Amino acid sequence: MYGNDFSAPGDAPDDTPGAGLLGEVEAAEAELRAAAARQRRGGPAPDEDLAAYFTEVVDAEQKIEPRDWMPEAYRRTLIRQIAQHAHSEIIGMQPEGNWISRAPSLKRKAILLAKVQDEAGHGLYLYAAAETLGISRDELVQLLLDGRQKYSSIFNYPTLTWADVGAIGWLVDGAAIVNQVPLCRCSYGPYARAMIRVCKEESFHQRQGYEILHTLAHGTPEQQAMAQDAVDRWWYPSLAMFGPPDGDSTHSAQSMAWKIKRFSNDDLRQRFVDMCVQQAEVLGLRIPDDDLRWNEERQAYDYSQPDYDELMQVIKGNGPCNRERMAHRRAAHADGAWVREAAAAYAAKRADKREKVAA
Amino acid sequence: MNGPFDFALALGDDALIAAQRLAEWTTRAPEMEEDIALANIALDQLGAARLLLSYAGELEAAGRDEDALAYLRDDREFRNVLLVELPNGDFAVTMAKLFFLAAYQLPLYTALASCPDERLAAIGAKARKESAYHLDHGALWVKRLGDGTEESHRRMQEAVDHVWPYTHELFAADPAAPVDPAGLRPAFDETVGPVLAEATLTRPERGWAPTSGRAGVHTEHLSYLLAEMQVLHRAHPGAKW
Q: Does A349 touch chain B if contact means CB atoms closer than 8 Å?
């Protein structure tokens, strides 16, 4: 049904992006099954301290499930994080959706359309995971539309050329995977399970983006220039996706203790840089950082930090496309109101008829 | 229209232009589930278009592949029916287009599945299953909107009235084609009549019936659609993507 006939080019490396990370997703899935199989002592005793029981479950790498008691701040943190993730999937459809109508071949059009559709699907499972915490999707969508919840700042940058579709796949989806793979081991069961499914699909998207760039970088001089320009524009915003440096990150310490988060922002950013350097070489594209070099002592690449003041500006609503992205989502929601009302009215009439027949 | 080349090209163009219009809804649908459903239908149409255009290119034997046919022809060379190129309008217009198109494509692909040309038969066999889903989806929305609220009823009736004249072209006789579309009209009427009735909608009288799409004389809308669809491909002649 998806017309998705992606295949890797013969000269692409075997370890195309995401291969190692996908192994980690599978390990997390096995761990999740093992946690479910391990004996849990059937919930807290009647007079047991619920907070102590919660901590014990988290420390034992067991999963917290919707029926379990949890600290209010844990619930609020998860709602905020999962909703932000869901909103990012929905808003993230816009920059790539921008190129569906102009995709340069029918095969690329089919792959891109299927990808943007997958993002809508990810949004839906993530809203469903958030709903297990006692909030409705409608409420969350309203929080987004009112500007009271955020989405990933990266989607406030424009897609100016076809190569941007490739750069989003390679860099943005790549950074998202590095961020999300540890979430497959999150202490909250429904989020961990949703992330396993999302990561598997994201890894496929990253390969597709990488393949777009690979084709362009080995194409005409104009195509090569287009690919390099896209990497030049998307590199630093992608590094900023990991959030502020560890010293300035407000939510990190508590989330680590609760095993929602497993690695610091800077650790994940480093991991992403190390992964990209080798891939950029195979692509034949330059990472726009004159200070990028291997550090023998650290066994990692030294690199230039993104502009965190710019990140803060984009988070505050002052990125190139913040206003357009929100206006687009609000317009779609408002334009669809009469359709949703009609569907509800029709369903009510049908229920009414069935009741009359039953009576 | 006559031989298998013209036939495959015409059907491929219908599917391609329908896909391009449906994909315009991505990120704009009234519900998230509907965004996914419309993308799914667009993908089905695009998949059928690719098979049909590839086959047309082989029959023509002039070295044109699916992309050469999709990206390097001008609007006068496109053979799609006018219905698919009409702008999306509101959601009711899109559902009227989807419903009428599916009510034609389902019997068309079903008939094609048992035609003597093996390639066309295989395409028909695959596409008819997809068309059955498109028809269900379109019919469900026509009923919901027709028998929903006062506003949705008004919009759906206007949409049916607006799109109806363009349905006649779907059944223009072509006795030499692998499937003569004229023979599909009774199946279309049997599908459409009861759904419109259940939706409390009035079926328009037959009046104006434009039929020039198959001859390459289109509405003003098609060349804008093609300009957008073809711009990048044409800017880089000979490039691989």
A: yes
Taking an 8 Å cut-off on Cβ atoms, the answer to whether B145 and A339 are in contact is yes
Q: State yes or no: pLDDT of A249 exceeds 90.
A: no
Mean confidence (pLDDT) of chain A:
91
Query: Could you say which of A105, A220, A345 has the minimum Cβ distance to residue B149?
Result: A345
For residue A73, the one-letter residue type is: A
Return the C-alpha torsion angle B145, B148, B153, B155, nearest 10: -50
Chain B residues with CB-CB distance to A90 below 8 A: 32
Q: What is the pLDDT of residues A95-138, one digit of tens each?
A: 999 999 999 999 999 999 999 999 999 999 999 999 999 999 99
Neighbour count for residue A13 (Cβ, 10 Å)? 15
Domain that holds residue A180: 23-319
Distance between CA atoms of residues A114 and B223, nearest Å: 26
On whether ipTM exceeds 0.95, the answer is yes
Q: In chain A, how many domains are there?
A: 1
The identity of residue B147, as a single letter, is D
User: For residue A246, how far is the Cα from the chain centroid?
Assistant: 20
Residue A335 with chain B: CB contacts under 8 Å: 28, 30, 90
A123 falls within a domain: yes
The DSSP H or E segment spanning A300 is: strand A300-302
The whole-angstrom separation of Cα A28 and Cα A262 is 13
d(CA B51, CA B151): 40
Residue A356 neighbours by CB under 8 Å, 6+ apart: none
**Window A:71-100, CB contacts with B under 8 Å:** 90, 93-94, 97, 100
Q: CA of A228 to nearest chain B CA: how many angstroms apart? A: 16
Q: Are A101 and B229 within 8 A, CB to CB?
A: yes
Instruction: Please compute Rg for chain B using Cα positions.
Output: 17
Burial of A327 (0-12, 13-18, 19+ CB in 10 A): exposed
State whether residue A64 is helix, strand or coil.
strand
For A31-41, the pLDDT digits (tens) are: 888 888 776 66
What is each CA distance from A16 to A83, A169, A205, A228, A299, in whole angstroms? 30, 13, 12, 19, 21
Q: Residue B228: its chain A contacts at CB < 8 A?
A: 101-102
C-beta separation of A252 from A81 below 8 A: no
A99 belongs to a structural domain? yes
pLDDT in tens, A202-219: 999 999 999 999 999 999
State the nearest Cα–Cα gap between A334 and chain B, in angstroms: 8
pLDDT in tens, B178-216: 999 999 999 999 999 999 999 999 999 988 999 999 999
Q: What are the residues whose beta carbons fall under 8 Å from the beta carbon of B187, sequence distance 6 or more?
A: B103, B106, B107
What chain B holds in terms of domains, given with CATH numbers, is: 4-235 (1.20.1260.10)
Residue A180 lies in a domain: yes
Q: Is residue A8 part of a domain?
A: no
Please tell me the predicted confidence (pLDDT) of residue A34: 85
Please report, for the domain that includes residue A263, its CATH number.
1.20.1260.10
Residues of A in contact with B240 (CB under 8 A): 215, 219
Which DSSP category does B183 fall into? G
Q: How far apart are CA A166 and CA B105, in angstroms?
A: 35
